[in-house]
Structures are given as C-alpha cells and as structure tokens.
Specification:
The chain is an all-alpha fold. It has 7 helices and no strands. The mean pLDDT is 89.
Length: 173
C-alpha cells in the first residue's frame, strides 16, 4: 500500500524540509533561542518522525530507515562528523512504536509520547557530549537551562503543528 501512495515521495520530502527548517529556525531566532540563561533547541525532525508513526495506519512507512538517513544528514550537515543523531532518531521511532502499542494515538497521547521522545533525544545527546568531553555542564544545569526550555518550545511546536501535519499526512494517503 505504501508503494501506491503519495507518502512514498511526500514523507522523505517532508522529513528533509523539517531537517532544514530546524536549522533555519535556529539561525533566524538565535538571539531568542540561545541565551546563557536558557537554550531552546527545535526538534522538528523528531516531530515529523513521531507524527509518521502516529498517523501510519495501514501504511508501512520505512520510518526507521529514513530516521537513520536523516540522522546521518543531520550529523554531517550541522556538526560535520557522524555523531549520535544517527542512532537516536531510529531509537525514537522504535520507542514511539512501542508506546503506540500501549497507548491509542490521539492528540494528548501524541503530546505525551513527544514529551518522552524529546527528553530522550536531549538526554542522550547530553550524555554523549559528556562522555567525549564536549561539555562540562552539570546535570542539574542541563535540566534547568537546556531540557526545560527545549521541552517548552517543542511541546508548543507540537500543539501548533499537530493538526497541519495530520492534514498533510491525510492528503498524502
């Protein structure tokens, strides 16, 4: 069914559009998003991947493969080296699929799943940065200055973009 739908081309195009929108939002709003008191990181790629799993229905989209490709492009484009995102994005897809088996997908459960996924992405990125000595930030400082504001931004983006993304997925089906 996936081969016959517009999702075959629409999903990767939307994924890479979200990938570049992440960078554009960070560039345009950098004075507001990246302050010493609070750092907010947009994760529109994760939003697109989570929505793909939530809206998948009977279409078997190869979301995990596209997540790995998006992670590789994300790492190479934003950092110049293969990093942790190549592993985190497929892990997010796996975790979301597991959670969807226990929770029926709707707006509120999607918000909860997205909350868990963003927490996982940020925590694993922080731990990896700590392990290779890219950051010396204490865990409590990370929770207050990065994780909290990032969750606030991304949950607001989820609330604003959930229904338009659902409309795009319904149109692509």
């Amino acid at each position: 069914m996936y081969r016959l739908s517009k999702l075959r081309f629409g999903f990767p195009i939307g994924l890479f559009l979200m990938l570049f929108l992440d960078g554009s939002i960070s560039q345009v709003f950098s004075t507001h998003l990246f302050r010493t008191s609070a750092t907010m990181v947009s994760h529109l790629v994760v939003l697109w991947l989570v929505c793909a799993v939530l809206f998948e229905d009977r279409f078997d989209i190869p979301v995990a493969r596209w997540a790995a490709v998006a992670g590789a492009v994300f790492d190479l484009y934003y950092t110049g080296i293969f990093g942790i995102e190549i592993f985190i994005f497929p892990l997010v897809v796996y975790l979301t699929r597991v959670l969807v088996n226990y929770i029926s997908p709707n707006f509120l459960s999607g918000l909860l799943i997205y909350f868990i996924d963003i927490t996982l992405v940020e925590a694993l990125s922080y731990l990896a940065s700590r392990m290779v000595h890219l950051t010396s930030m204490a865990g409590s400082a990370f929770l207050v200055t990065t994780l909290g504001p990032t969750l606030a931004l991304n949950l607001a983006l989820f609330v604003v973009l959930y229904f338009p993304i659902r409309g795009v997925y319904n149109w692509l089906k």
